[in-house]
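Re: beginner question about structure tokens

> Can someone show what the tokenized structure looks like for a real chain? I only ever see the sequence side.

Sure, here's an example I had lying around. Input first:
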Amino acid sequence: MKIGMIGLGKMGGNMTQRLLRGKHEVVVFNRTQGPIDELAKKGAIPSSSLRDLVRKLPTPKVIWLMVPSGKPVDQNINGLKPLLKKGDIIIDGGNSEWKDSMKRGKALISKGIQFIDCGVSGGVWGLKEGYCLMYGGDKAGCDYVEPIFKTLAPKNGYLHCGSSGAGHFVKMVHNGIEYGMLQSYAEGFAIMAKSQFDIDMRAVSNVWQYGSVIRSWLLELAERVFKEDPKLESLEPYVWDSGEGRWTIEAAIDTDVPAPIITGSLIARLQSRDTDSFSMKTIAALRNQFGGHAVKKK
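And the corresponding structure tokens:
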């Protein structure tokens, strides 16, 4: 397929490369010129503006937004609307709030433009391993762009979750669960770090990957973290939150579902900004490993 990609950061740039490797044609646009030039060297088709990007796409036009949630999404959609026609498709692959995606879907469908909200998980490893995709929107539109999903995801790694908003809702819950998993691992490593024993965290991370009931990809990343910095001495115990943990807790409250683990993990992140915590250093390091998220260095 031929697709437009807007937003060529650490996610959008790698996703573009994976699509190119899958023999798709990708027209690219970004706020700054550097990423456009780099991807053009790898086979992408550069564009100089939203209008130029749209002009270079066949009908129906398929455009993937990989920009930060909130205003950047709305600004791009508002810029695209007058350039698109009935049957064209916009995919929002960022971490937008699901309520916003429902509103955007409703507004665009009134113009005849199809909207797909697609939660993307895989972080900086997605280029090699593939991205888990959770998407919502009109089934016919989603089926039309399935070749794109099939290329971006590993086998069995993509799912139509329902109507507009469902994809970002499922991704939000995914990230809420991630908060709890990271917190649990981090607290366990902190207990070992503060114990009377001289425990090799890297070795523990490794052995738990073989037959243990808590084995996971996060433990593989933990092994990398502790190999590079056994005591996490280079990091500040400061953990950002993307907002999705907060949204998950709001959804839990709205649906009367008790979610003490996810809620506690968010509170711990907020507390990390005022403490010197090995747990928070561990979470910061792991988030950097799987998602390329920023860390505070000493």
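Each token stands for a local structural state, so reading them left to right follows the chain. The two ends are 46 Å apart (CA to CA).
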